[in-house]
Amino acid sequence: MTKVLVAPSLLASDPMRFGDEVKNVEAAGADWHHVDVMDGHFVPNLTYGLPFIQALKKLASIPLDVHIMVSNPDAVALDYVKAGADRLTFHVEAAIHAHRLAQSIRAAGAKVGLAANPGTPLESVFPLLEDVDSIMLMSVNPGYGGQHYIKQTAGRIKLLADKLKQYGLQNKVLIEVDGGINAETGAQVVAAGARVLVAGTFIFGATDRAVPIGQLHSLLP
Ligand code: DX5
Ligand code: ZN
Fold this sequence. Notes:
Layout: E1 5-8, H1 18-27, E2 33-38, H2 50-59, E3 64-69, H3 73-83, E4 87-91, H4 98-107, E5 111-116, E6 134-138, H5 153-166, E7 174-178, H6 183-192, E8 196-199, H7 201-204, H8 210-217
Parallel strand pairs: 1-8, 2-3, 3-4, 4-5, 5-6, 6-7, 7-8
Helix pairs in contact: 3-4, 5-6
The structure holds D-xylitol-5-phosphate and zinc ion.
Zinc ion (ZN) binds at residues 9, 34, 36, 67, 178, 198.
C-alpha cells in the first residue's frame, strides 16, 4: 500500500456541534470517519448506538469506519452494518466465533476489521488474516481519547507486516493503528508498516483540521 489513509476519530469532536464537525473534517481531507462504539462493559465508556450511526450515515460523504468496543460483537455487529457501517471492526478479545463473524460481515457487504488490544498476543489475529480487510492494532488501551501512544506498538506492526508478506497478503490487508497518533507517533507507525491512521485529539484539537490531516498524509509522500 503506497498511501496513508487518515480517519479522524469523532470521539474527540465537539458533541454539541457534531454535524458541523463531520463536514469540517471531510472538507479538511479526511478519508474515513472513525466512529467509536463503546458499551460501558467491554470498555468503561459509553458512546454511540444504532440510531446515531444511521443519522451519521445520511450526513456523511466518506466511508464510516465503525469500531465496536463491545462485549457481544457476535450479537450486534451486523446491526451496525445495517445501520451504515462501511467498515466494521470488532475486537478479537470479545468475539466468540471471530471467523464466522468476519464472514457474515463480508456477506452483509461491509469491509471487515479485526482489532487487538495492546496486551493481546499478536498470534491471536494470524488465523484470521485471510478473512479480514484490515487489522487494527490498538496503540492505547481502548475506552478513551487523549491517551498516550504505547511505544511497543511499532514492533507489533512490524511483526504483523512481516506475517502479511509471508502469506502474500500485504496488498490485501490494511494495518490500521488507533490511539495517541500525532505527527511524531504517526511517523513511527507508518515506518513500521501502518497505512491507516486513526487520530482524535491530534485532529480535532487543531483550529485548522487540514493541517494535522495533511501532516499525516504526507508521512508517505
Ligand atoms: C480509543 C478509541 C480511539 C480514540 C483515539 O478507545 O478507539 O479511536 O478516539 O483518540 P486519540 O487519537 O485522542 O487517542
Ligand atoms: Zn477507535
